[in-house]
Fold these 2 entries.
Entry 1:
Amino acid sequence: MEYKFSDRISALQPSIIREILKGTGGTDIIPFAAGNPAAESFPVNEMSQIAAELFASSPAAALQYGITEGYPVLREQTRIRMQEKYSVGNDDIDDTLIVSGGQQGIELAAKVLCNEGDTVICESPSFIGALNAFRSYNLNLKGVDLENDGMDLDKLEAILKNDSKVKLLYVISTFQNPSGVTTSLEKRKALLELADKYDFIIIEDSPYFELRYSGDYVPPIKALDKNGRVIFAGSYSKVLAPGIRMGFATAPKPIASKMTVAKQVSDVHTNQFFQMLVSEFLKKHSIDAHIDSIKNLYRVKRDRMMDAVKAYFPEEITVNRPDGGLFLWCMMPKGYDSAAFCKTLAPYKVAAVPGAAFVIDQSEISSGIRLNFSLPTLEQIDRGIASLAEAAKCFIRK
Amino acid sequence: MEYKFSDRISALQPSIIREILKGTGGTDIIPFAAGNPAAESFPVNEMSQIAAELFASSPAAALQYGITEGYPVLREQTRIRMQEKYSVGNDDIDDTLIVSGGQQGIELAAKVLCNEGDTVICESPSFIGALNAFRSYNLNLKGVDLENDGMDLDKLEAILKNDSKVKLLYVISTFQNPSGVTTSLEKRKALLELADKYDFIIIEDSPYFELRYSGDYVPPIKALDKNGRVIFAGSYSKVLAPGIRMGFATAPKPIASKMTVAKQVSDVHTNQFFQMLVSEFLKKHSIDAHIDSIKNLYRVKRDRMMDAVKAYFPEEITVNRPDGGLFLWCMMPKGYDSAAFCKTLAPYKVAAVPGAAFVIDQSEISSGIRLNFSLPTLEQIDRGIASLAEAAKCFIRK
């Protein structure tokens, strides 16, 4: 039988990254493709103990239906921490929701704010999960080239002047995925001014901002938001564990209220047991100390991968050293198609994500390669980068 | 600041039921409003032991990112159980996905199959969570009156003849929410014939079908589906626990594939830890025996509520005895507005859901009242029904 799908979905393909992962999981392939945290960063003992306590003390609450906005204690803990530590959120105009991973915050924001055919401006390149969420509502994506300090503002304003259908600007402000770029304070302020001038909402996706290994802290755009222009999509995936699907969104109250209605028809509420577990973790342990331990782990891995890249990679490939996050972003010489390159990697027992996964216009050819350093071991980093270098020499110089 | 929301969302209100629950939770009000399972039905000891084992043996897998389609072992266990026990699903044409509660299966199906303005036919009355999911995609809902054995087929075919935009028919085939009606085998077959004749897809929502306390088993519509016309939305909420948000969808492969893409942009995957926990539960324990124990618990509660209703309710209110599920559906005399009645209940310390929550046309006045018997204790049932009867006499005879 032939099925007819909705216009919004019929052309949408699964994430290239997740397809690569399905093909390379559970094998002897060195995993530079994933965006996975290191398993040794999960606070397993603490979580295990809290889980046992929850089953003993409050199983009825932890296994029963909860409210859509989130477990009230966790909402409040999240709100207070984000507000006191990062000035994200505001008692008066903002509200914090618990969502099933940062991704859900982005998808709900798109659903409640955009009609089909509206425009979303994105950094180019950008995170495929968000791009596909926008595509799944038939939105019109327009990419703005990334410079070393964020979007090219001239190109951005050129779009804004000519497109009255811009509803959203999507930005991964700190340690951008895949480029590693952090938007400067000046450009953050400029984005807010443009949001006021051209009347759009900013989705600030910030799953990595607490994982800084070098350089100076830059406040979130949301911390500078005086007029209720910013939705902050936050995540516990990279600082606790991703498999529990736990994130949050801090948004102007009217937007948070509509996102709640949209979440209600999607998954009713986020897993109640793990909302309570994360809440107890935040009560009993220092998440800041835990994040420090993750940073110490990943800083070493980043440095090791940078060293290996310098030692092994052919000079034709350029790499920027990121100040945080999970990824190195490499560029092959202009004109080389990294998607074709990544397909040659299987015999080298290494997996990487081609830039094609992150382009806004899906017909565009990319010479970028994203390498994850959080998941592989130091030994895998050395061996994998050496293999990748061999493959690259072969591909570039053949 | 004034925000402009998408057309699909701007008129959508939160579920009346969930708003009632927010207002009546944690108090001394007798809970007939919820659709919550009894906490004593949760297999707490078994889950607690499995959780401890998972943290000890495979924390890296249980806390790490998983694949969107679901934990492969749980998918396969679910598929095999549904196929062998209920003939739901088929190796060749169907696929089974794990979703974050049965609700998500319904929402994803609507998203991938319907364009804005398409028609969804629903039973009238029907489950607000599904109705709101359809409304959240700007779909056109058309209700078909329920008879004692399912939809009025003449009225259904009258709609089908005159509306070429019907893409979906949504049916809660067994122990319908709120009416308790089970669609007869004859009508199930007729729905499939109409689906072929008028080219639409059936969403069969069946969260309660294993909770039968009397009467004869009727096979799911999906078990009769030879042509790939049916999406079965299943749930572990009522047979294990709802707070873990664990459901499944069995759908023709091309539809399941698009639903996977849509799920990927929504929550990436369902909580991995609890997917593995449910999988271990199914391996180590008999879910059939567990369901039998729930049925024994709820059968007594249903009978107790029916007895109390007969003893206390004024004769003007009619009630059908449901053969399963979680609800009694009561009708006040025609013309009485049960929404106004339910607002009088606070001093009586009892909460119920007015039929207005389940109407297709939101301007319609309903005289129905839904009463849940799974959550309250036997003592609460006696006391609550007596109070409700007092309130009803007052309201009807004043």
Entry 2:
Amino acid sequence: MACDDNKPKIGIGLIGSGFMGRCHANAFGAVSGLFDLPARPVKSVLADATDEIAAAGARALGFARATADWRSLVADDAVRVVAITAPNVLHEPMALEAIAAGKAVYCEKPLSTTAASALKMTEAAEAAGVVTSVGFNFLRNPMIRLARDIVSSGEIGEVTGFRGRHAENYMADPRTPHSFRTDPQGGGALADIGSHIISMARHLLGPIAEVSADCRTIHSERPVSANSADRKPVAVDDMTHALLRFASGISGSIEANWAASGRTMDLSFEITGSRGAVAFSQERMNELLVYSGSGARAGYRRIEAGPSHPPYGRFCPAPGHHLGFNDLKVIEVAELIHAIMENGRCMPDFREAWEVQRTVEAMQTSSSTREWVSV
Amino acid sequence: MACDDNKPKIGIGLIGSGFMGRCHANAFGAVSGLFDLPARPVKSVLADATDEIAAAGARALGFARATADWRSLVADDAVRVVAITAPNVLHEPMALEAIAAGKAVYCEKPLSTTAASALKMTEAAEAAGVVTSVGFNFLRNPMIRLARDIVSSGEIGEVTGFRGRHAENYMADPRTPHSFRTDPQGGGALADIGSHIISMARHLLGPIAEVSADCRTIHSERPVSANSADRKPVAVDDMTHALLRFASGISGSIEANWAASGRTMDLSFEITGSRGAVAFSQERMNELLVYSGSGARAGYRRIEAGPSHPPYGRFCPAPGHHLGFNDLKVIEVAELIHAIMENGRCMPDFREAWEVQRTVEAMQTSSSTREWVSV
Amino acid sequence: MACDDNKPKIGIGLIGSGFMGRCHANAFGAVSGLFDLPARPVKSVLADATDEIAAAGARALGFARATADWRSLVADDAVRVVAITAPNVLHEPMALEAIAAGKAVYCEKPLSTTAASALKMTEAAEAAGVVTSVGFNFLRNPMIRLARDIVSSGEIGEVTGFRGRHAENYMADPRTPHSFRTDPQGGGALADIGSHIISMARHLLGPIAEVSADCRTIHSERPVSANSADRKPVAVDDMTHALLRFASGISGSIEANWAASGRTMDLSFEITGSRGAVAFSQERMNELLVYSGSGARAGYRRIEAGPSHPPYGRFCPAPGHHLGFNDLKVIEVAELIHAIMENGRCMPDFREAWEVQRTVEAMQTSSSTREWVSV
Amino acid sequence: MACDDNKPKIGIGLIGSGFMGRCHANAFGAVSGLFDLPARPVKSVLADATDEIAAAGARALGFARATADWRSLVADDAVRVVAITAPNVLHEPMALEAIAAGKAVYCEKPLSTTAASALKMTEAAEAAGVVTSVGFNFLRNPMIRLARDIVSSGEIGEVTGFRGRHAENYMADPRTPHSFRTDPQGGGALADIGSHIISMARHLLGPIAEVSADCRTIHSERPVSANSADRKPVAVDDMTHALLRFASGISGSIEANWAASGRTMDLSFEITGSRGAVAFSQERMNELLVYSGSGARAGYRRIEAGPSHPPYGRFCPAPGHHLGFNDLKVIEVAELIHAIMENGRCMPDFREAWEVQRTVEAMQTSSSTREWVSV
């Protein structure tokens, strides 16, 4: 019995087959079996730096065709979504060409190497009316949806404070060499992972109006490459602490730190309200702590992810079984397909990513001038 | 550029498109993009109860063909692996027919409704020399691999005690109706989820020699179906506590409990040794607690899953990002493909599943006779 | 300005100035400043093995007089309460003589070396009508009072299961020598610390009716004394696992383990009900976990000790500041003074301690006979 | 047998019998039974606002005499230590008079209402050569001693970052009325509890050189008294976030927050080093988290307080039994007695308390001027 359905097909063109490329491919492959979408993504074309890499990637990841020329991928009639997981410096030209071709663009974060570039991309996309999506996948977590519902519904009363952080340890060792991450253009802990906690703060509490930040380089030199004896200076921050004032008047702080020994994925926050609080860390991404109750019963409740927290039930009908990081990417892709088919906005889009990026730049400016800076 | 690879293809025939069927399909679809396998699984045929269900499942899950006749699936030349996610009572006939056809069999747990049936299936598979695998997927967790390495290497000294549990709350409410889970043939908390902690105990510490168990029905009646006013007696246990003696002399206890308010997925254990200990709960499946150190530095260390814990790195190059439940199924499928291509044994296989099942039955016997029972 | 009050004075005679003796003395000294008691305990006489030890103890602990003759302490007119912290084998003669003299008796656990002896002491005390108290101080914790209130009020629905444990690691090392703890008369992990979890289980859920237990000696030999090369066999258990049936029909399990690497003071339990659950460990004695809520808000709430949990407020007006182990002893003493002045019963008294002790013996019997034993 | 020892006696004069007064009295009463001190404190005189309050306090707390005139207490020949737990505004005159009389002064924090006043007190004490001690009792915790040893020994490598906080919820409710805490002179969250995390930061990492702070009043009005309908403006901060640069170059942040719903006593920090990290919260004051290890074994180890962590063993010979808040005060008193008898410095003394206070004021200045401020 033949089984092809009559759903519309959406051809995917994926640029890049590294870590994030694999995540994208896996998500596009899995999403139709997990979500009931209005269209079916089809893995059409994969582009990478050389024919060999592209072909190997396409075979492993299940794409129909491969190319070393990303421009031909963008131009390909079968491709309706251009998914960009290439180096940051290429995001702008790739996205602009895809926008010009009327394609939806799904780009990894950071959107570009400067806020100015991100704004240019945003304005091009808006002028062309194409759907855009940027891979701040941690926002897709059902427990983050729950946190946002709790905050916005007034369940914890008036919000009074925010304390956020993204701390990891992958650059804690001074022997870890330079890489694209330490490139002055777009690199540093604040840009690399601070952007996640900034996007989270905006997602949960709205715009950030003013910042006072302290960016610090812990290891002033690093090897030029792995195992090299040559060392050169580091021009980006390893750790940034910042004070925040949100447009709503809420105040708080964030930390971005890629040299935080002991932390692997501490994208975390605590939001304090007049009647309750919520706390979360990505290190325990299937849990949300919610403070409620009074008197002898007041306490932080540990809520475990389950089917009561959409779209968890798409992955598993029983609570406590855990979503993983790659599942967040599947949710991101499902929302992208919906936006494309329903002409909706897929948040966070290019404009939102630009907002994040200019907040990063305001913090960098504040650290240089040692003054509060309006975003 | 064409991208088809020259890897052997392994045709998958999947029986059942419910929760576990979707898990299987997702795993077969994702595994090639994540693991470097000696062959590529291909989703060939999906069987379910009716043509409509089968066709809908095949479309959603990406199978080439669909059928309402599982026997035709088994007989299909394109099918090399028969994956069984049908009701437990059908496992034996389906598996025996697949074995007779020389197919590898990948069956969900419990292997069958009785240990006798499970043994029959085991002996048939061994006589035919086909690869078998049973879906005790929790054993696939990288943190369980780590726990097993730590225990078997002597890192915690001589093992002295075991304390295990599988507790969930899905039957805690007396209004939850009868279902296949409460069927006297093969149902009950001990058989349904106690089997997981038994398989875990065996995986980590070897055979269980003797048991003294106390099976208890908490809710003596349940509605015959959802929202029905008709109630009928419950003949299976809601909760079992058991004492264990392992063949190695280690003693301990387990609990199986599907009425455990507060627990969603507490498949947990603590293994105590003369120099250390390990503790785990599936509710925090990306963590293993390992006790070590001495004097002022002794303590339980919380180890977060990362690329140092194979095969975590297949899913993500950075620690702390989390695997999810569905990822365990991908690992299970990867090991199955390896076993098929390398004529190896894929543990836990039918024989191991039979060992688990007869341990369950020994506990049930012990509870009836109120005596210690040798397994 | 003179400050002596007109409250009645209660003279304390303390036998023993070791760890528990110091606890008693500290508690009697502190209690009047913390609680508003109907009488004031006065540290009158301290007895210990020799004049020197007794005098040094009395000076350090603030007793007016000292003696090497406990019988003179018991006979002393100034002494109204005899507090016994001497070796277990002496509890019976000391208590019987104090009872005969009409004194209240405050005895450390275990009450005696056998249940028969404990019963003899109980019957003597009841016949004489003296107040007795036994030092199961962990029951005095405000969080245990909260747990008991929650369980008895029906807040978690009908109780369905119990899982208890007292695990420490002080005998985990096979080089730890023999001591009074390994004396066949009254020693072993079950008698030493298992008695705590048994008293806790009874305190929270009532009488235990039947048991099936497995007592195991992990280290079959130990040095006769510290650093000795001479070793002799161990005749007591290092670890006991037991199944329980309470008189109420609830079933469950306990573990007593003094060789539990990784655990320092895991006197812990989880009580499961049809609508909620409570969980506790003495390792976090200022917290009670209470499961409640439904749907998307269900979860274990971590309640921190505070003034809402009497008598916490006697020690500190602010929550979260922590009571310590020694504070539990102060509460125990406050309840003793109240019972003496109000002719009340001070639970746990000798009778309750006897109930605990015969439950221990029933478990030992069960392990020997390998049968279920009624308590 | 008489038991008076020949140790020197140290007469204590306590001013105030409220919460902190009771803590002091309890500590002076208990310390000789727990520590082997070179002298024995004797509770001589208690002063409070009226004769009645003083007499009642003296009776409850075991002082020999009572007075409504603190000057007579200071002048009393029996008094060698003046312990001040009176309102903050009285600290200066009381301390200056005690210093003039050559008495040791043990003062609750904050030392005074302004840094200028604190400096005056400091200089007077140093000129007179009297021992001073200020009640930053949280520093006395054995786990803080452990943290300091780990940091200062280089065990976690070079320290790179600090993240500190003192958050409680006692002012979270806008209906909580004005009190001395909201008095512009010396009040506010930063002065009240922020001082604790500042003293902790200095204790662990040394002087703070520069700050950028944001003090915020969450509830702009509060009732003038409990249940009053009259409200008046609040002139102090409910919450302060601050960036720090230590003299050593380490950067970090702190938060002081008395409106932090969900937090009862979160005096907490995380110190990150190049090879490890330590983390602590007073809410779990008997635990220190220490990150160490590498590869597959790296993780945060939860170290439970025990006799390996002096002076825990003074309170209990077994680990995991817990010290409480009041025990910290006993340690503080023991250190004071040692300093008095050995002419040593008792840290934190007046000078250190002044350093904390001027750091608080630097933060307040920074918040007003919106500039970085050198301390």
